[in-house]
Prior knowledge:
The protein is an alpha+beta fold. It has helices spanning 3-15, 40-47; strands spanning 35-37, 50-53, 57-61, 66-71, 76-84, 87-91, 99-106, 109-116, 122-129.
Amino acid sequence: MTICQSKRSMLAAITGLVLVAGTVTTACAEEVVPWQRLDTAAIQTVLAGNIIDYANARQEFSASGRSYYAETGGETEFGQWEARANRYCSLWPPSTAWSCYKLEQDAGDPLHLRFVGERGDSYPGYLRAQNQPADSKSP
């Protein structure tokens, strides 16, 4: 097994992807990174003033740090958010504890984001501007 093949095998094991020869490469040739972790400044830029649509919910991120979350057909919850230490952090009353997640962006579709918890739990969503209709997925 070559070093490149070994890296591909490791990538497949870590991400759980089923690789088709040539679809995902490592640094051996053209590097295709499926998810890119965002830093503090990028998190602030991407989220502030925008909305993320999840499978059965949506979340709005105001530039002031307020956040609004509503499941389809459910009531709206109000919380706070901020970007710090290269993570997205949120506070949802009545809790007084902040929860923080890595925020990653799909390299192939920059509007596709996912929040990743400390245990690897993942919450994917699709970014849209506040003035963009809910059924529209393109800028």
